[in-house]
Amino acid sequence: MQLALTLGRRGQGRTWPNPAVGAVIVKDNVIVGRGWTQPGGRPHAEPEALRRAGEAAKGATLYVTLEPCSHFGKSPPCADAIIAAGVARVVSAIEDPNPEVGGQGHARLRAAGIEVSVGLCKDEAARDHAGHFLRVGARRPFVILKLAVSADDKIAAAGHRPVAITGEAAKARVHLLRAQSDAILVGIGTVLADDPLLTVRLPGLESQSPVRVVLDRALRLPGDSKLVHSARQTPLWVMTSDLSEAPAAMKLGAAGAQVIRVPVSNGSPPGLDLTSVLHTLAERGITRLVVEGGARVASSFLNAGFVDEVWLLRGPDAIGMDGIPALDTQPLSAITQSPRWRVHATETLEQDSLTIYERS
Questions:
Q1: Residue 331: DSSP 8-state
Q2: What end-to-end distance do the CA atoms of the chain give, in Å?
Q3: pLDDT, tens digit, 9 for 90 and up, residues 312-358
C-alpha cells in the first residue's frame, strides 16, 4: 500500500478533476502490476495495473489507494475490470465519498465473491486525496498557502519592492509544489508588483505548469504582462467582478485568457467573494490549489478558514522595519503560535528552512 500511495502521488497536479490514485497487484509475494491515474484522469490506476499484470492478475491481490469506481463516466467502472480480470482480493485504503461511488464499488466486488479489506493506510490516503474529498463534499479545492518570509517575517521591501528571500534550493521546492498542484492563485497586487510567470521551471517538468489564477476585481491585469503573453501556452484564468468593464475582458480573452466573473464580497475593503471563487474553481475540476500571494490575499484566505495547509519558507536575512508583513495586518504568529495549526513536517533547504503546518 505504501508503494501504491507513492505511485498515486506521481499523478498529483495532472489528473484533475479525477483523484490521483495508485494501484499495485501482488501474486505469490511478487509485484506483477503497478499503475497510477494517467494525465487528464484516464486511464484510472486499476486498469493500468491490470494491463501491466495481464494474466497474472487472476487470483492476485490488488492494493489501491481509493475505492474502485462503480459507475460509467468517461471510462467503464474499475470494479467491473477487476472482476473480469479474476482478482481474488482487493485491499482498499479508503472509501470514496463521491455519491456516485460511496461504497458501491466495494459492494460490487464483494457481490462477485472478491474478498475486500478497507482501511489500510487510511490516514495517508485521506491526506493524499484531500482535494478530491473537499471538492466532492465542500465544493472547494484543498488550499495550500505558500509564504516565503525573511528572518523578520517580511515578504517584500518597502513599497512592495521585490527582494530575494530564499535561495535556489527553496525555489526548486516551490516549483515542485506547483508541478504537483492543479492551480496556483495570486492577487492582482502581486502581478503588478512582480510581473510573475507562475510556471514550473524545473528540468523535465516544464509541461506540468498548473493553471494560473489571478484575482482581479477591476481587470487591471496589464496586457503586456508575462501572464498574458503566455496565456496561450499555459492556462490563465482571470477572476473578476460582475461589474468589471467588458472591453478589458474582451482584450484578455483575445490574448488567450479566460475571464471568469464571480460576486463581490460585502467586506471592507471590497474584494471578490472567496467562497464563490473556490466553488467556481471546484466546478471547473480544480482539486489542489496553491495560494502564493500577496499579503492581503493570504490573510483573506486565512481569515475565511479556507487554508488547509501552510508552507512557510524562511530565509536567513532580515528586510527591516519598513518591509511588507507576510499577513497584512496579522502577525505571522497567527500560524506559528496558534493552536489551530500544528507542524506536519520540516525541511532544511541549504540556508533556508521549510515548515509545513496542517490544521490541528
A1: -
A2: 26
A3: 999 999 999 999 999 988 899 999 999 999 999 999 999 999 999 99
- Spatial neighbors of 256 by CB under 8 A, at least 6 apart, are 228, 231, 232, 236
- CA nearest neighbour of 22 among 40, 2, 52, 42: 2
Exposure of 169 by Cβ count < 10 A (0-12 exposed, 13-18 middle, 19+ buried)? Answer: middle
pLDDT per position as a tens digit, 51-66? 999 999 999 999 999 9
Look at the chain and count its residues.
360
> 95 an active-site residue?
no
Q: What is the largest CA-CA distance in the chain?
A: 69
Residue 107 CA to residue 151 CA, distance in Å, equals 54
Q: Phi and psi for 227 in degrees, rounded to 5?
A: -65, -45
Pinpoint the alpha helices (H) of 209-336. Answer: 226-229, 246-254, 274-283, 295-303, 333-336
Sheet holding 22-27, edge to edge: 30-36, 22-27, 61-64, 89-92, 115-118
Question: Taking Cα atoms as reference points, which of 187, 136, 139 lies closest to residue 160?
Answer: 187
